[in-house]
Design a protein that fits this description.
The chain is of the alpha/beta class. The protein is 35% helix and 11% strand. The longest helix is centred in the last third of the chain and has 24 residues.
């Protein structure tokens, strides 16, 4: 297996000839953590908005030989029928891919006017008790249909779902993924979300390499990172940094997003062509990242396909009243 902790630097040997050597990575900056299977990185295709988009992703990943550990959706569980969810669960199961679906109502689509202001107001969080209850209902419905990874964008929703899991009211192997829409940006915040129940945390894609080293001093929770980011999250393209991001941030999910693409949330038949085309292109972007890692001798350290659990994480104590619910 290739050692990804000291990646070959792009253009290093050629620049050396001109006296433009790039500083070598420092060993102490490398993350000391990995997934429980020993891998340092996994892959994720985001914004797969339904069975048709999923079929396109699976076909393209086979054609381009792109390994996929996780597929995620952004419009919300409430935007899918039971039959559609079941079809997605079955399709992912045949390929040993984790399916992650987003909880429903969020303030950005609710009647609260604050989200329409320049400051963004409550953002994607669950608005009021009804919003919280809707997200819990969404999660329970998806889990009953076989989904084992739930994407959340509210710390209250996360804590409630984690308590239900800890009490045995949700399957113990259910995992909770924190959305990029509220991703934390400092080590203390990452540690808090881990303790609230997050099993992987989507951090903003504009964090520097040094920021990842800082985070890894306080937490080993898997991080999700867009290597290419949708425009509404910045539009960053960081393909050439993939090897260093793995070295600094492991364990990490490399997310193959797509800049300069139309927004598709909430998705539906009216956006069919865009949804399918962008889903297929995200897989191709993944192939580009994997090819670059190979050229830099940094393609080792990937988790085995089918791996999904995060390993032991730090948690806040669950109140006895919640445990008593079981």
């Amino acid at each position: 297996m290739t050692d990804t902790r000291i990646p070959r630097l792009p253009g290093h040997s050629q620049l050396n000839l001109l006296g433009l050597a790039v500083p070598q990575p420092r060993l102490e900056d490398a993350s000391p953590h990995c997934f429980p299977d020993g891998g340092q990185w996994r892959t994720e295709i985001p914004s797969v908005e339904g069975p048709e988009a999923l079929a396109a992703v699976l076909a393209e990943s086979h054609r381009l030989d792109v390994p996929i550990h996780r597929i995620s959706q952004g419009s919300g569980i409430w935007m899918l029928t039971d039959a559609e969810i079941t079809e997605m669960v079955d399709a992912c199961a045949t390929r040993y891919i984790e399916l992650c679906l987003f909880t429903g109502p969020r303030a950005t689509w609710d009647i609260g006017a604050g989200t329409r202001t320049p400051a963004g107001g409550t953002g994607p969080r669950a608005l009021g008790h009804s919003g919280l209850a809707g997200c819990v209902e969404d999660a329970v419905r998806a889990i009953e249909l076989g989904v084992r990874c739930i994407l959340v964008a509210d710390e209250g929703v996360l804590w409630v779902l984690h308590q239900l899991r800890a009490a045995g009211n949700l399957p113990a192997d259910t995992t909770f993924k924190l959305s990029a829409l509220i991703g934390p940006v400092n080590p203390a915040a990452v540690a808090v979300y881990e303790r609230l129940g997050a099993d992987s945390i989507n951090v903003p894609s504009d964090l520097t390499a040094a920021h990842f080293t800082e985070i890894r001093r306080t937490s080993r929770v898997p991080l999700d990172l867009y290597v290419e980011t949708p425009d509404d999250l910045g539009g960053y393209v960081r393909m050439y940094e993939a090897a260093e991001l793995i070295r600094r941030a492991a364990p990490i999910y490399l997310k193959f997003g797509l800049s300069k693409a139309p927004g598709i949330y909430p998705s539906g038949a009216h956006l069919r062509e865009t949804v399918v085309a962008t889903a297929r292109e995200r897989v191709r972007r993944g192939r580009l990242v994997l090819d670059l890692l190979r050229r830099l001798d940094s393609d080792g350290g990937m988790s085995p396909l089918g791996a999904r659990l995060p390993g032991e994480l730090e948690r806040f104590p669950v109140p006895e009243s919640a445990v008593a619910l079981s």
